[in-house]
Predict the structure.
Amino acid sequence: MMRLPVVYLFTHDSIAVGEDGPTHQPIEHTMSLRLIPGLRVIRPADANETARAWQMALEHREGPTALILTRQNLPVIDPERAVGTLRGGYVLSRTLGHRQVALIATGSEVQVALEAKALLEAESIGTRVVSLPSWEVFSEQNPEYIEDVLPTGSLGIAIEAGVTLGWERWVDTPAHVHGLDRFGASAPYEIIYPRMGFTAEAVVERVKKLLED
């Protein structure tokens, strides 16, 4: 309410902390933070996005910023494209063919989206991956940019290891959200992610079903 430029740092962001038990899995926290007026929430996908997120936090002088960071190691994505983090969302990987599907992801799930894109493109399903680290910043962009990133007519699928409520802002229906409305279980992330459906194969299965409907 005072619009102080405070930076809040949150780590251990999802079911990937399952070795500590389901009570330590903040599936609802990121979405809850997005509901707070005046708070800028950023959930970066890798080291390059994290560096840009810190830049955004330090330059934002009109209110607080919450950085949502991941516990597990993640592959480093294209540093040149990661500059799109400064606009809240950007096309990380464009389709090689006719545009059909837009996989929209945040944080560690961006890697799942990239893997799913490779599988879908192998079956001639044109797919783009959109990294959407900050809803607040992305929504401030001009309509032309938002349309370029999330084009009308594409099947938008949101991928985030957290509650599905709220994603209707960016996708058409709850069926288009690959999320989790329950707590996870006590297991390493290499086990819990497949068990809870956060794999490229599970995303591909959902996309195909939606395309058939």
Notes: The two ends are 45 Å apart (CA to CA).
